[in-house]
Task: inverse folding
C-alpha cells in the first residue's frame, strides 16, 4: 500500500485493491493503518486517496545498490521495518541471542525511539533515518573509548557527500547544523564489558519532520529538508553504512586517535563558554576540544578538567 501511494498521485480504492489483490474492505483497513502512522492521507472525493507530497520510502534494493564493496562485505543483514518500538532495542535483543553482528536495521517509524539520558527520540513515519548497527568486539569496552564521537565524524563525512552545509559536532555525540541538532547517536552495550562485548550504534537523523510530530522535541532541532532539500534517503542511508561499517571494523585497532583531528575541525563549541551539567553538579568554563580518548577538555581558572561522555550534558553558557 505504502509503495503504491508513495508517488503522491490519486489512487482509487478499486485500483489499490486490484494491485494488492485484496478486497475493498481490506484496502480500507490498510488505509486506516497509514493514518495511525500519522501520515496525512487525503481522500479525494469520487476519485480515491493520495499522500500529498508522496514519500521517499527506504528500499533494501536501493540501499544495497548504493553500498561500497567494503560495506557490502561487512554487512551481514539489512533489515527494513515500517514500524518498531526501537531499532536499538531490537538489535540489543539480537546481540543477546548472538545474531546481531553486522546487522543494520532501519525503521520508518519508532514507537519508543530511545535518546540519550532517558529521552525519547521522536521518529515519525519516514521523517528521518533511524538506524541501528550491531557489532561484536573482543577485548573489552575500553577499546570503544571515543567511539560515539568517531561515529559523529562518520556521519559528518556522509553528509558532506551530499554537500549539506554548516555541519558541526557537539560533544559528546550530536551532529549540529546552524546551531541546532540534526542528528543524535546512542551507543548501547551488552555482553561481558571486560572481554567479548557487543555494541549497538543507534543513529537518528532528522530528514523532514512534520510540524505536529516536531512539537514533541524539547531542544532546538533542524532537519535536512530545510538546509538541503531533495536528498534521496536511500543514497544517504547507504552512505552512512559506507562510512560506519569500516569504522566499526577498524576501531579496535585505530581507536579515536584516527578521528580526533577531524572531530576537532568540526567542533561546534571550540573556544566557546559552556556549562556542563551532571545530575547534581554544574561546571562552567571554556570548551577547548577533546583529548585522545574523546573526553571534553574544559578550561576554567587556568586549569584543564576532563569530562567523559556518560551523564554530563553540555550547553552554551549564558
Ligand atoms: C540522542 O539522544 O541524541 C540519541 C538519539 C538516538 C536515536 C536513534 S534512532 C535509531 C536508534 N534507535 C533508538 O531507539 N534510538 C536510536
Result:
Amino acid at each position: 500500500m505504502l509503495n503504491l501511494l508513495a508517488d503522491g498521485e490519486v489512487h482509487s480504492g478499486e485500483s489499490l485493491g486490484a494491485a494488492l489483490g485484496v478486497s475493498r474492505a481490506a484496502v480500507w483497513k490498510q488505509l486506516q493503518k497509514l493514518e495511525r502512522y500519522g501520515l496525512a492521507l487525503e481522500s479525494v472525493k469520487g476519485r480515491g486517496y493520495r499522500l500529498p507530497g508522496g514519500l521517499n520510502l527506504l528500499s533494501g534494493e536501493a540501499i544495497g545498490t548504493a553500498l561500497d564493496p567494503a560495506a557490502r562485505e561487512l554487512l551481514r543483514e539489512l533489515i527494513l521495518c515500517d514500524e518498531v518500538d526501537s531499532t536499538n532495542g531490537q538489535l540489543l535483543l539480537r546481540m543477546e541471542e548472538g545474531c546481531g553482528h553486522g546487522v543494520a536495521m532501519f525503521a520508518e517509524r519508532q514507537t519508543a525511539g530511545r535518546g540519550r539520558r532517558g529521552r525519547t527520540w521522536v521518529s515519525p513515519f519516514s521523517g528521518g533515518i533511524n538506524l541501528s548497527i550491531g557489532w561484536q568486539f573482543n577485548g573489552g569496552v575500553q577499546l570503544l573509548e571515543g567511539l560515539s564521537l568517531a561515529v559523529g565524524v562518520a556521519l559528518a563525512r556522509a553528509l558532506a557527500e551530499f554537500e549539506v552545509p554548516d555541519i558541526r559536532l557537539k560533544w559528546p555525540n550530536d551532529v549540529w547544523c546552524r546551531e541546532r541538532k540534526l542528528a543524535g547517536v546512542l551507543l548501547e552495550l551488552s555482553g561481558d564489558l571486560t572481554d567479548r562485548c557487543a555494541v549497538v550504534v543507534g543513529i537518528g537523523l532528522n530528514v523532514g519532520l512534520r510540524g505536529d510530530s516536531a512539537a514533541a522535541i524539547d531542544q532546538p532541532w533542524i532537519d535536512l529538508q530545510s538546509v538541503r532539500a531533495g536528498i534521496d534517503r536511500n543514497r544517504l542511508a547507504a552512505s552512512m553504512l559506507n562510512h560506519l561499517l569500516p569504522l566499526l571494523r577498524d576501531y579496535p585497532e585505530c581507536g579515536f586517535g584516527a578521528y580526533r583531528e577531524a572531530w576537532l575541525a568540526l567542533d561546534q563549541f571550540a573556544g566557546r563558554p559552556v556549562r556542563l551539567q551532571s545530575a547534581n553538579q554544574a561546571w562552567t568554563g571554556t570548551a577547548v576540544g577533546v583529548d585522545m580518548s574523546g573526553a571534553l577538555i574544559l578550561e576554567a581558572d587556568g586549569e584543564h578538567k576532563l569530562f567523559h561522555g556518560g551523564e554530563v550534558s553540555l550547553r552554551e553558557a549564558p
Summary: The chain has a mean pLDDT of 94.
